[in-house]
Amino acid sequence: MCPDRDSNSSPHVQSEVRQKLAVEMICPYEPGKPIREVQRELGLQRIVKLASNENPLGPSPRVIDTLNRDPLELHTYPDYDGWYLRQAIARKLGTPMESIVVGAGSSDLMRLIADVYLDPGTEALVSDICFPVYANAARIEGAKVVTVPLDDELRYDLERMHDALTDRTRVVFLASPNNPTGLEISGGELNAFMEELPPQVLCVLDLAYHEYTDPERRVNPLELLQRHANLVLLHTFSKVYGLAGLRVGYAVAAEDVSAALSRVRIPFTTSTPAQVAGLVALEDTEHTEKSVTLNDAMRRRLARDLGALGLRTYPSGANFVLTDAGVDADAVFVRMLRRGVIVRPMRDPRLNTCLRITTGTEEQLDLAIGALGEVLAECKSPTPSGRGSG
Ligand SMILES: Cc1ncc(COP(=O)(O)O)c(C=O)c1O
């Protein structure tokens, strides 16, 4: 049972300790209430969560089995820098182990990159619509965040990003596929961008959803890294490996970059269960293939069903689809929540009628599409005063 967080709590007290100015610049993550709490409050039988791009199949059964059987020596500290996990990743990628750094999710590695390369007087370049941790990681270091708008089709405008570089730019954050658009950067575009990027500027290529992209069109990130030492690749175990709850991800980079990231790492951030789970998950290619196959099918279905509701969808290479509901996204979110379906409403002014929906399973999509159809009808039907309610 979830304890009521507010009961028996003592009143908040205020300290007078001055915080870094940068803290005020941070846009905090809005986590929402725990699902069980929402379910209890709304009296719902079940909730389908399609808001955080998790793997609906969960982790590999081999991971569950290992974690259940292995005592894991939880009273001892984890392996300091994930030796065996790094070794397994290095073997799989065919790179030296020294090029790999593990972290508590790839978000942790984004903070490490900012720690190493950004300080006041430097700049980080991001697109206006992207994963918010990039900008927050830069801001907390006191760096200036320069945003470059995605183009009208929500694709990266890499030429414009290039034009926005200054001699203060240290880091550029890119994601392929991007979140929340789902759109990929083509190999050709990335190659051209890296060719033009000054070697003193680090490009962080976030590949959180890389495994879901079509292998035919997919960029070969390791090949790119071979040619450009100012590139860092970020991978996560939170998506296709289904281990979001354990917090584990890794960076692949040139040796000086990975050595610097390791140097500023807080020791032992990646727990023993996370390291062991990552290791086993990497080996179970059958499970990742099954996850990708399910995602391909559900992504096609989701795009088709949204199209049938008359909504525009953006072509996605990830495990979610961005769609334009044509009415206020927050209003749709609230009404879908009451029907037990959680999707992600976009808050960006350019996207405030858009929802990001994780692909899920057939059963989850039956409920989500059913609920969305009802909600859209409700939002578009005239209220007694004659005005739409969306
Ligand atoms: C583009 C992108 N990068 C990174 C992450 C974070 O991954 P992790 O769980 O490894 O911190 C996410 C999570 O949603 C994401 O969408």
Under the CATH scheme, which class of the largest domain? Alpha Beta
User: Please, how many domains?
Assistant: 2
Overall structural class, as computed from helix and strand content, comes to alpha/beta
Hetero ligands: pyridoxal-5'-phosphate
Give the amount of beta strand, in percent: 5-15%
Low-confidence stretches: 1-5, 384-390
- The CATH architecture assignment of the largest domain turns out to be 3-Layer(aba) Sandwich
- Helicity range: 25-40%
Characterize the quaternary organization of these chains. single chain
Provide the residue-averaged pLDDT: 93
Name the shape in a single word. globular
* Biggest β-sheet strands, sense, barrel: 7 strands, mixed
The CATH superfamily of the largest domain bears the name Type I PLP-dependent aspartate aminotransferase-like (Major domain)
**Strand tally:** 13
CATH topology of the largest domain: Aspartate Aminotransferase, domain 2
* Order of helix and strand elements from N to C terminus: HEHHEHEHEHEHEHEEHHHEEHEEEH
